Structure formats: structure tokens, C-alpha cells
């Protein structure tokens, strides 16, 4: 089985440098997709990119030539609107040709605004409506528990998305069953579509909430790759499901987008696009 | 399960056929798992739990989670039978059924227990007379409404054998074992002609099939020859059998379901665009008043007598 991660024999700093370069490519590609399609969700693409890069280019075990390999680690993007980042990541990881990214949201393209597992290799379940990823991930982890299989299941949810009750039904089940193969990354950019999460329906203290539901909780800077890697690569053992509260910046990497709710589904004009690309290259 | 030929008299609770079949399947195939919402008792899955404790996943009173967990188990290679009261399984988790199961084409078998008005006096919150309408419009999920224990077993076996989403609507109301030849076969997408007839046709499914047969019997005594067609497979549906029924010139449909969106609607969609014929759709007009299941069926004319009278009406007799 090909190891998709080049980390063996490398220092943490070397691994992080590699992941960082992938993340830079993903950010630029995602932004170009949004620019070309004249639609998309750049703010959330950019906040989730570092976690995605850490998963696909360091932590996870998978084979792009055999996307439904039974022993693969599973990843579910519960915030299914961040397809700019997801599709760029999957293409870079080799699941489908990078040239196809130019068809993003074009008529009849398989690269829909939200991912479809039956059309795109590497997608585990169809997301889009919020609050769907967690129950499915919990089901996968239960299957692994029954089979005593060693594959792991990762989810990224948005933070605003945690206002959906179905997440908490699933969190309760995961805690009850001590699903230690499950790792949730909360993309905690503190902004939802229209406003701040805490100004809408507050989530804090989020760590206490997950702890009360039977999870181990770690809070990190979600853009600090060197902090993320040891939490994701299996070297941090946990007997309960693990919730990583990744403190992130919506629109990360592009000065005029950072921390602005309006870039949830904003589309840059030509001048903004040029500036953004320069900043991402810097 | 006994062969169809040996089922003779008495009434059966189709849940028994469901769980007996599931236990047999579970013994032969360890991929089979059951997922419930604190509904071990109402789904009669105590036996399955005792035999395969690790494979009975009770997520508690959490239907959205239950359906998503089923999809996840399927992703992990399991054949997940997700069982709960049909009203909650379909209504509470409709978006999970749509996105996680049907649209994702997950190998999940949704078993809607105590469908229709089985919960009688508990009222419209607990009735499930919209489920077939909701699910059949999705197209990408097989929808089955078995009429008796034998057909329930066939549905469960067929669901386990196919790779893809299925909804099986299982009643708790007593139904007789339908008369069938010993070599009767069940095929998803095929209707079953239970009685030949050329003056008109009665298309029914689930608990209404036995009443349709009774109606045809009564009509025969009056010299009217009514065909009875069992429409267990609602999606895919047997267009050929429906168009052949339309050739008789008159169709009565009868279902323990809303008159909007169920069997009657499905038949009308096909007949109206191909071979228009006179039709009467029998079912529930909307939310039901207080009463036992039997009372509610009488109240809405879901009786052999009214089925027969409806066909007579279409025939002008």
C-alpha cells in the first residue's frame, strides 16, 4: 500500500514545511476556482485549508487509485460548502485530474457546489445541509469498533454548524461508545454566514460542552501546522473521541478577507483577485 | 419462514416476519447490523440483540443521528437495517434520508415500523401516512410496502441482497397470509396479480391488499370480474402492470396512506399520461381524528365494502 505521506524519517519541521506548501497551493487553487465560477465560499475554504492539508499530506492513510480501499482512513467535510478547498485537496492528492478543477460549478460538471461521493472519488458521504457529517462519521467509527479495524475517521465541521442539534446527538453517541478512532476538527473561525457565532447563538464554552459529552478536547491555533500534526498523526493517544478546536481565521491568508463574514460567499473582483494571489505567494 | 403454501389462516404481525428474517440473515452474514432509536421493543428486535449484541446499535432517542449512523455503518462495510416507528424514521430524519441515504446511495435499509395509522388513538403525530409520498419522490431509494408475512420476508431478503438504499414499510396490524402458489416469486419493481379480472382493477398495497381481495370476491358474486394487483414495489413501480390494469377501463387504488402522493398518485401519474381511464383513489384525506386504527380505516372508507362500491361507481353499476 502506498503511503501518501512523505513523513517517515522527517522532522516535524520538515513535515510541516511540506504541508504548508500544499496548503499554499490549495488556497491559491480554491480562490481561482471561486474567481472563475463567480461563486463559492472562499472564507470557509481558507479557514479550513491548513487542517485539510495536514490530513491529506501527513496524517491520513489512503490510496487515490483505490478510493474505497476498506482500510483507508475516512474524512468527512461536514461543512460541505467548502468545496473550493476540498476539491483542490483531493485533486492535489491524486483522486482526480487537477485540470478538472476548472469545471467547478460549471453546467454538468461533477464538481458541484457540494460534494457527491458517487461522482467524486475520495468523497465519503454527500454533505451540504449542515449537521450531517458527525452522525455518518460516528457510524463509520462504530463499524471500525465492531470489526476491530485500525482505520481512523476524521471530520471537519464549521463552528456555526454546531448550532445544528444532530451534531450533539452524534457527539453523545460517540462519547457513550468511547469512539477513540474518531477525530473532530472544529473550524472555529467564529463567524457564520451573517455574523459572529457568539452574536448569533453563542457556542462558548465549546471545550466544556464536548468534555461534558465524553470527548477529549484540545484547543490549538488551526493554522499552526506543527501543532496540528502530532494531534492528527496518531501519536497522541486518546481513549475517547477527540475534539480539536482549531482556532482559525475566516479568509486566512488574504488581508482584506480575514475575519469578515461578508467573505463567507463573497467573490473577488479582478483587482482583488490579483492582490489576493500576491499575498498567498508571499 | 414457512413456504407460502403452508400459510393458511389467522392474522399475522409482519414485524415477526421482519425480525425472523433479519435474525436468519444476521446468522449467515455478519455484515448485517440493526440500528434503533430506543425501539428494540417496538421493532421486536430483542431476539436479534440477544443473538448479536455487538451488532444491535441503539443510538437512543435520536432519529437524525440514527439514519446518519446507518449511512456511516454502510460506509464501513455493514448492511445497516435502521428500524424505528415510521413516523419518526421518515419525518424526523427526512433530510438524513435524502442526503445521507438516497442521494449518497448508501447501502442502508430503512424499516418503517407501525406505519399508516397503526398507532390509532395516539393521533396524527404518530401516524405515518405521508412516508411513501416523501420517499418515492426521491427516486433514488427503493420503496417497498409488503402486504403479508411472506412478502415481508421477501422484501427484507431482497433489500439485504441489493447494494443500495431501501425503505420497507412494515405494519403492526394483523393481516392474513395471502393465497399464493407455492412457486410464487418476489421481484423488486414487479407488481403481483393476485386475481385476474377484466371489468376493472383494484390496485392495493400493504394492509389493504387483503381487503381488495375481499372486495373482488364480493364483486364476483354480483357478476363483476375485478383484477386485484398487489403494488408492493412503489419505487421502482411496475408501469406495465398499471397500464394493463388501465386497459380494463376502471381502476380503484387503495392504500393505508394519504390520498396525496402515494399509490393513487403514482398510478394516476402513469395512467393519465398514457391510457387515461376512470380512477378512484382511496386513502386518508389528511390528519385523522381520534380512533383506533380499525375505526379510522372504516371512517375513511378503507373497507372491502367501500372498495367494491367504488369500483361499481366507476362502472356505473
Automatic annotation (TrEMBL), chain A:
Cofactor(s) needed for function: thiamine diphosphate
Keywords recorded for this protein, A-Z: Thiamine pyrophosphate, Transferase
Descriptive protein name: Transketolase
Enzyme class: transferase
Taxonomic source organism: Novosphingobium sediminicola
SUPFAM superfamilies: Thiamin diphosphate-binding fold (THDP-binding) (SSF52518)
EC number: 2.2.1.1
One Pfam family it belongs to: Transketolase_N
InterPro entries cross-referenced by the UniProt entry: THDP-binding, Transketolase_N
GO molecular function: transketolase activity
Residue ranges of domain Transketolase N-terminal in the record: 23-272
The family this protein is said to belong to: Belongs to the transketolase family.
From TrEMBL, chain B:
Taxonomic superkingdom: Bacteria
EC number(s) reported in the record: 2.2.1.1
Keywords: Thiamine pyrophosphate, Transferase
Domain Transketolase-like pyrimidine-binding: 12-177
InterPro entries, per database record: PDH/Transketolase, THDP-binding, Transketo_C/PFOR_II, Transketolase-like_Pyr-bd, Transketolase_C
Keyword Transferase listed: yes
Cofactor list: thiamine diphosphate
UniProt cross-references to Pfam families, sorted A to Z: Transket_pyr, Transketolase_C
One GO molecular-function entry: transketolase activity
UniProt keyword Transferase present: yes
Family per similarity comment: Belongs to the transketolase family.
Protein's recorded name: Transketolase
